[in-house]
Amino acid sequence: MATQNPDTPADAPRIDPLTLEVVELIGAVVARYYEEYDVAAGKHALTGAQARVLGLLSLEPMPMRRIAQKLKCEPSNVTGIVDRLEARGLVERRPDPADRRVKLAAPTEEGLSTARSLRESLDFAREPLAELSHTERESLRGLLRRMLGT
Amino acid sequence: MATQNPDTPADAPRIDPLTLEVVELIGAVVARYYEEYDVAAGKHALTGAQARVLGLLSLEPMPMRRIAQKLKCEPSNVTGIVDRLEARGLVERRPDPADRRVKLAAPTEEGLSTARSLRESLDFAREPLAELSHTERESLRGLLRRMLGT
DNA sequence: TATTGTTATACTCTATAACTATA
DNA sequence: TATAGTTATAGAGTATAACAATA
């Protein structure tokens, strides 16, 4: 074992400074991502959870159960989130002809256009990435893919 | 203007496929980051907000007001979060000799060791990055810095 | 019996507004 | 009067448990 500076916590030496900095940068990206997402949702007077569900449904209507799986939360929570979206006229519940237990949540016309507008106001897609050239984006894509084990 | 596939929404053409994929990859990183953070916090029976505050204080004790600034939330919320950490014996409130209005929140010994353990269980720092070579990490660092305008 | 969605309950986080004790 | 922290209140998200309708 190497001699440690007494100021250095016991767990610190296991991560080299470069890795630590990359982790901090990823943390900054995550923080910025969430911030921009909430701002975009707020512009439409939606909470983060509501915006996420609306975004999901704008791709494809689905049973309440599946929304919960996508959100990684309990199905009982989805009831309230969809209730609020439905009260605002952005989403509606339809019966599933194949199984009368199931309710399919689907966006209304207004819900669809809100979801589209939400996607557009997600500046995160353009602004930070605008700094990078095409080649750099390819490089970033490759590194992120490897990180995620894709 | 280029001819569009009728299946393509009106907002899609503004982002090229490469950028879109990078954005999706960043979204995946963000999701994974949050997941691992919550799992790590949960191992210590802490909520995300509590873990974040404890992590902050483990670096440096600070006034309630400043915690709110760091968390980007209202000061009134910090009262409750610190209350719960204090009830668990992980944090304590100390008077500020310089200004009797101020209360300094500081981790206890147990709080410090919990914070250390929390940091260690944040596998995100090591596992995904372990896939990348030193050179690749340097490259990733550069790209992230440019993205964030650092 | 098992599954889908809901309700009831309790806890945490959040913002707003009003309060207290200092400055 | 201005500031730091708190309290009170209300809304939203979360998990757990129990329930009705349907499979």
Automatic annotation (TrEMBL), chains A, B:
The keyword Cell membrane does not apply. The keyword Transcription applies. The lineage of its organism: Bacteria, Bacillati, Actinomycetota, Actinomycetes, Kitasatosporales. SUPFAM superfamilies: Winged helix' DNA-binding domain (SSF46785). SMART domains: HTH_MARR. PANTHER family: MARR FAMILY REGULATORY PROTEIN, TRANSCRIPTIONAL REGULATOR, MARR FAMILY. Residues 19-149 form the HTH marR-type domain. PROSITE patterns: HTH_MARR_1, HTH_MARR_2. Keywords: DNA-binding, Transcription, Transcription regulation. It comes from Streptomyces flavofungini. This is MarR family transcriptional regulator. Gene3D superfamilies: Winged helix-like DNA-binding domain superfamily/Winged helix DNA-binding domain.
